[in-house]
Design a protein that fits this description.
46 residues; mainly alpha; 96% helix
Length: 46
């Protein structure tokens, strides 16, 4: 009985974390690209 309950919890939390991870990855990509652009700008402006 406890195992089934855990499975249900894992399934529900998994679906919610999946979308969270997706947005996190997108944010990370944006941040890294912005940081990269800043670095390139600094390199070329020297």
């Amino acid at each position: 009985m406890t195992k089934k309950r855990q499975d249900k919890k894992a399934k529900t939390s998994n679906s919610s974390t999946e979308s969270d991870e997706r947005t996190l990855a997108q944010r990370l990509k944006q941040k890294s690209s912005e940081a990269f652009a800043k670095e390139m700008h600094q390199k070329f402006s020297k």
